[in-house]
Every structure is written in structure tokens, then in C-alpha cells.
Specification:
By secondary structure, the protein is α+β, with helices and mostly antiparallel strands. The chain is about 20% helix and about 35% strand.
């Protein structure tokens, strides 16, 4: 990491990306990066070479080469104390390159930006004054962007883009704490080919001008609330380890066990019998999460499921259903896959399981719930999950996603109204990739996006992340939360039965379930009776609420 400063302008250069771009110590742009993404939306790692930094009294210049999957890009950065920053990338593919996206992405922070003024200039030169969205929208808030202006305290920041067609997505959908402007509209085909030998040139220019003084952002309200009941998810593949460590599960004592069943993956009677065996060893509310195959008659499929559940002896507390095809994301402008109407799916489920609480929504993430909103009047509860490594997997970005959770909770509540709100799996590791054909293998235990196995799960980081997530739930109205699996790569217990730090955090949270909690003035989460989360967990896992300070220079 290299800190670059000139006058009021400062930024960090990390791995070829610009981060934490500030003017007079206030974050203006969260990041600018040149990215190459494959057909599964995986970000190809870049090797940085020939870095040269020239510093002058009035500014700085940076040159380096970035190589990703054979694509060589020559990068130039120029910063000046008078309020000018320009980044340019030049690349010539040596061979045809198949990609979902290649070029610059620009991240605007959400704190002090969401719901506030913006001026959008389009490629034809016309401009409009508007606002960044407050609630999270399922579609792109701005399209055909040549420049975006927004305000920070004492300055107006204009971000100009050239070299391709840019548009913006609200990354709060994926729990990223940013609005992302990127190249190529999603309505265009992807993946696409960068032709061999054809140079591509893109640039991003920031200009800082004097602007009005702004009041500091107000923290999002977090009224007193009841701590959600805690659940752990178990898939059939994880049942042998779960049964082997049933005593550990009883010690952790979650209120709910979320049983995942996917007939398209071959799950059936054997898995249900295993869940029933676990239920006899560890009583709790066992909720079934059933992936509806939708390959034949819906009534026949659901009646067959009801017979299999009855034969297994598994006593269900509730049942949530989601069509299999809905687990794959459908971006705005794309064709929706064939799927029976959700009303028919829910009606067939009700008929097969009369009297059992019925849930719907998405087994994936808020993004998919936001894009395909279920008829909530037909449901008893609505669910979705979150994942913090869709677009970035470094420690800082993962922790920054906690800043977004209150935005997701408010936006989900606007969709589901007064229905019960259950939050599904929110682990760091991704169990299923809605944006590609698979999760990304991680044999080296690296910090990478969209992997099902994140190395931080067994250490203090996941414990701190989970404690911080718990703090964001105060006042949300979420009744049940599944922060992890029990065993496996997203679990809280190792193969040898060792309880990882995140398991101790979740055990403490389970003891708090159903009790009233308050967010203190210092940002800690504590019980109404005065006992605090950090006292139960020990200091390393007590995470403050809210975004990091924005009015001090980075260290």
C-alpha cells in the first residue's frame, strides 16, 4: 500500500487500485479500479509490474503495468493539489479475450451520498439534477453516464468517464457499501470478446470545486429491539459431520436449524432421515428450505415431498420454498427463465402442507429478492441472505459491507410490509453463486470473491464480522437470523469438533435471542438488563456500529 498526497488530495494505491480518495480528509470516492472479469463474473488477479512514482510539490504521477490473464494494461495516474486526479488505462489484447466486463469501475460511498444530490451528464452532453436512491432499487439508478457530480462537506466532486458507455448499479443490493459505475450496459450481450490487437483506452477524471458546507451524516436510527432467534444451516452433504458433533450443536444451542434440501442435487429421503436423526439428538425448531425443481406437476412434486417428510419422522416448524431457476440472478434487461408463477408454487405447497408456516423469497441474496418480488400476501414470512464477497474480498471491503446492512433491512421491509422477516445465511463464504456457473475454488486459501471456502471463517475475523452484523440488526424487526452453517467451510465447528471463534460468538448471540437489546451511545450492542455483547464475547469480537470515521486523514 502506498499513500499518495498533494495538497488537500489524498488516496491509497493498493494492488493497482485507487482507494479511499479524500479531499480535505473527507472521503469523496471509495475506489477506482481497472478490472478484468471472466464469464463467471470472477475478477482475474492482476500482476503489477514496473511501478514508478514521481512526486512533485504540486502533484504526483504514477506509471505501472497490470497483467491479467494475458491482457497487458499500461496505467497512468496524475494527481494535482489544485483538485485534479486522472487515471488512464491502455490495453491491447494479444489474443481474443472472452470477458463479462473489462475496464474501469468507480465506487461512490453510500454514507452521505444515498438519498442526496447528484448531477448526471450523459454522453450527448445533456445533464440532469437528481438524487442517489435512498431505498435500494433493483435496476440501475443512472445510465449512459459521461460524468457524475456529488457533494461532500465543502466541495463538489465531478467524476468524468471516457472510452466506453458507463452506467451505475446500486451495489447495496449485494451488501457492498458503494454505488458502482462500470463499463458496458447490462442490456448488451455478455460475455463478449475483446478483439486481438485492438487497443482499448479508458479514463476517469476527478475535479474538486468549492461547494457548500454540509452537516455530518446522521446515523441510521436503531431503536430498541428484540435480538433475533439464531439459526444454523445444514446441507445433506454436511449431515455426517453434524451428527458426529451433535453434542457441540447442543452446547451452542441455536433456536433454529435450517435444513437445506435440493432435489436437483440428488437430495431426498436419505437426507430427510438424517435431519430427523439430528432432531432427536438436538431438539430445536427445524425449518426446511426446499428448492422446487419445477420440472413437472407442482402438486405432484409437493405431495411427494410431504410424504417423504412424514416417512422420515422429521417434525417441521416451517417450510420455505424457492424455484430452482430463481437461484440464478437475472440482471435488469435480461430475459427471465421459464418458471411457474410463484402463486402456483405457493398454492401447491399450502395444499401439501396445510397449517405449516410457509416462507418464500430467495435462498440467495437480497439482490434476487429485490429483482423478483414475491406475492407476500400468500406467505407467512419472507427470507433472503447476504454475502460480503461478491465484488471484493479484502478485509476492509468485507467489513465495510456491515455499513450496508441497515440499508438492506429498510429496503426489504419496504418490499415485504408487515410480514415476518427472516434473514437467511450471511456467512463470508458463498454457498451458491447466482452470478455464474459455480462458486470459485480456493485451494490456496486466498481472499477471493465468490468462493465457497473463505480462510477467515475459522479465525477471529469471522467472529468479529458476525458480532458486527448482529449489532446492525438492532431495530430491524428480523425474527430469525442464520449467520453460519454448523459444519463445513461456512460452519462454526471444525472437522475435529473444535468450536471456532465465530462459534463462540454465535453461542453468545443465541443466549441473547428473544431479549431486548439497545444500541448505546458509544455504538455497542447491549442487553436491556445492562449486560453487553462484548462482555459475553470478550473484547476482540465487539464491533462498533456504523461506518468508519470520514473526517480524518487516513493513516
Amino acid at each position: 500500500m502506498t499513500l499518495l498526497t498533494t495538497g488537500p488530495l489524498s488516496l491509497r494505491l493498493e494492488g493497482g487500485a485507487l482507494r479511499d480518495i479524500r479531499w480535505n480528509g473527507i472521503e469523496a470516492i471509495r475506489g477506482i479500479a481497472w478490472l478484468v472479469r471472466d464469464r463467471d463474473w470472477g475478477t482475474l488477479p492482476a500482476r503489477i509490474r514496473n511501478l514508478r512514482i514521481d512526486r512533485e510539490d504540486a502533484g504526483f504521477r504514477v506509471h505501472f503495468d497490470a497483467d491479467a490473464d494475458g491482457l497487458h494494461t499500461r496505467m497512468t495516474i496524475e494527481g494535482r493539489a489544485d483538485g485534479f486526479l486522472r487515471v488512464e488505462g491502455r490495453a491491447v489484447p494479444p489474443a481474443d479475450l472472452l470477458t463479462n466486463r473489462t475496464g474501469f469501475t468507480i465506487l461512490h460511498p453510500i454514507t452521505g451520498v444515498a438519498g442526496h444530490w447528484a448531477r448526471i451528464t450523459h454522453s450527448g452532453g445533456d445533464s440532469e439534477e437528481t438524487t442517489f436512491p435512498d431505498l435500494i432499487e433493483p435496476w440501475q439508478p443512472f445510465k449512459d453516464i459521461a460524468a457524475i457530480a456529488h457533494r461532500i462537506d465543502g466541495a463538489e466532486v465531478c467524476c468524468e468517464m471516457a472510452g466506453d458507455v458507463f452506467e451505475m448499479e446500486d451495489q447495496r443490493n449485494w451488501s457492498d457499501a458503494s454505488f458502482k459505475t462500470y463499463v458496458r450496459p447490462l442490456a448488451l450481450p455478455w460475455p463478449y470478446v475483446l478483439p486481438a490487437g485492438q487497443e482499448m483506452v479508458q479514463s476517469v477524471t476527478l475535479r474538486f470545486r468549492p461547494g457548500p458546507a454540509l452537516p455530518p451524516p446522521r446515523p441510521m436510527a436503531r431503536p430498541d429491539a428484540v435480538m433475533p432467534r439464531i439459526g444454523l444451516v445444514i446441507s445433506p452433504e454436511e449431515l455426517p459431520d453434524a451428527l458426529a458433533h451433535a453434542a457441540r450443536l447442543a452446547e451452542i444451542a441455536p433456536q433454529h436449524i435450517l435444513c437445506h434440501l435440493d432435489p436437483t442435487a440428488g437430495h431426498g429421503a436419505e437426507a430427510l432421515a438424517g435431519f430427523a436423526q439430528l432432531q432427536r439428538a438436538c431438539p430445536a425448531a427445524y425449518d426446511l428450505e426446499y428448492v422446487v425443481a419445477c420440472t413437472g406437476s407442482l402438486p405432484d412434486e409437493m405431495q411427494a415431498l410431504a410424504r417423504a417428510v412424514a416417512a422420515s419422522g422429521l417434525r417441521l416448524a416451517s417450510l420455505a420454498v424457492c424455484p430452482s431457476v430463481d437461484r440464478q440472478s437475472t440482471p435488469p434487461g435480461s430475459a427471465w427463465p421459464d418458471c411457474p408463477p410463484l402463486a402456483q408454487v405457493y398454492a401447491a405447497t399450502r395444499a401439501a402442507f396445510p397449517g405449516l408456516p410457509l416462507g418464500g423469497g430467495m435462498f440467495s441474496y437480497f439482490t434476487e429478492l429485490n429483482r423478483k418480488r414475491p406475492p407476500v400476501e400468500l406467505l407467512d414470512y419472507v427470507t433472503h441472505g447476504t454475502n460480503p464477497i461478491v465484488h471484493a474480498a479484502d478485509d476492509e471491503s468485507v467489513m465495510q459491507t456491515l455499513e450496508t446492512i441497515p440499508h438492506i433491512l429498510r429496503s426489504a421491509r419496504a418490499i415485504i410490509g408487515a410480514k415476518e422477516y427472516r434473514l437467511g445465511l450471511t456467512s463470508i463464504g458463498m454457498r451458491q453463486n447466482p452470478y455464474g456457473s459455480r462458486t470459485i475454488p480456493n485451494p490456496d486459501g486466498a481472499r477471493i470473491c465468490m468462493t465457497d471456502s473463505d480462510p477467515r471463517q475459522s479465525g477471529d475475523f469471522a467472529a468479529a464480522f458476525t458480532a458486527g452484523y448482529a449489532a446492525t440488526l438492532a431495530g430491524s424487526g428480523v425474527t430469525t437470523w442464520v449467520p453460519a452453517a454448523f459444519t463445513g467451510p461456512r460452519g462454526i465447528v471444525g472437522a475435529d469438533g473444535t468450536v471456532w471463534p465465530v462459534g463462540r460468538v454465535i453461542a453468545a448471540l443465541a443466549k441473547m435471542a428473544g431479549k431486548r437489546v439497545v444500541a448505546t451511545g458509544e455504538g455497542w450492542l447491549k442487553l436491556e438488563d445492562g449486560s453487553s455483547l462484548e462482555a459475553d464475547l470478550a473484547a476482540p469480537y465487539a464491533v462498533r456500529l456504523g461506518p468508519p470515521p470520514s473526517r480524518t486523514q487516513p493513516k
